[in-house]
Amino acid sequence: MDENACVEFLQWALPELHMRWTGFRKVHNQVCKRINRRLQTLQLRDITAYQEYLQCQREEWAVLDGLCRITISRFFRDRLVFSTLQRIILPELVQQMQRRGETVLRLWSVGCAAGEEPYSLNILWELDEKQRVAHAQAKIEIIATDSDQQMLDRAAEACYSYGSIKNIPEDWRQRAFNEDDGEFCLRPPFRQGTHFMCQDIRLETPEDVFDLILCRNLVFTYFEDRLQRQVLSRLEQALRPKGWLVIGIHETLPQDYDGFEAWSRRLGIYQRRS
């Protein structure tokens, strides 16, 4: 399939899915390859025929929506963000939790793909010896959601290539993973406390209140402004007052949305207003 034809198709189709082309500009080849395989499955001659098919078969839009999911992820993506979580955010959350007389921090990873982000949080928590000594009684529970069940199945297996784990400090990597023939599988202690759920952030959220939500490189990259605001309202309601929201380092919240105060726009870190 011609790349220009696919780009024109995406520019036509994405608004129907409440997504925006600008978010797909650098990753559209991944989507175009999937669409090309879909054309072959449907035995359609070209992308124009697929466009006509969509107009006649409305149920096909749900299939296209699935083809447009971007699943690029890795452990400790944007290491400065995780360093900030380790040094500043998590210790402050623990202090807030202790003032409430509680012992468990609740974290939510939105669009968790194959588990790289929530497992990164677990590794960070388990292997930061200084924090473990300071807050020996504190625990974390992580809810990780994604709309792609295949990704969640991979997360349950928790086995990855070196490219996925290369950002993890070497000593942590050796402690957290078992290596077998070039595949790195997360050891059971680092999976505990992480619970995966198949959910679409556009439609539903977990029934819980969280201290920290990571919603990176998804909503505020690919969704149109109106949908971003709808999702952001859900995220706000799911956070405690003064809870933290982390988005992608290249993302920004919708203008004039006043439910959050920017702590570091450069790192995409915000705090819910009281």
Number of strands: 10
- Helix content estimate: 40-55%
| Structural class assignment | alpha/beta
Low-confidence sequence ranges:
none
The outline comes out as globular
What is the beta-strand fraction? 15-25%
Mean pLDDT: 94
What profile does the largest beta sheet have? 7 strands, mixed
- Give the N-terminus to C-terminus distance in angstroms: 52 Å
Element-level helix/strand string: HHHHHHEHHEHEHHEEEEHHEEE
Count up the helices: 13
Integer-rounded radius of gyration = 20 Å
Sheet with the most strands: spatial strand order = 6-2-1-7-8-10-9
How would you concisely characterize the structure shown here?
The protein has 274 residues and is α/β, with parallel strands linked by helices. It is 46% helix and 19% strand. The relative contact order is 0.12.
Topology (SSEs and partners):
Layout: H1 3-13, H2 21-24, H3 28-42, H4 47-56, H5 60-67, H6 79-99, E1 104-110, H7 116-127, H8 129-134, E2 139-146, H9 149-157, E3 159-160, H10 162-165, H11 170-176, E4 177-180, E5 183-186, E6 194-198, E7 210-214, H12 219-222, H13 225-238, E8 239-246, E9 260-264, E10 269-272
Parallel strand pairs: 1-2, 1-7, 2-6, 7-8
Antiparallel strand pairs: 3-5, 4-5, 8-10, 9-10
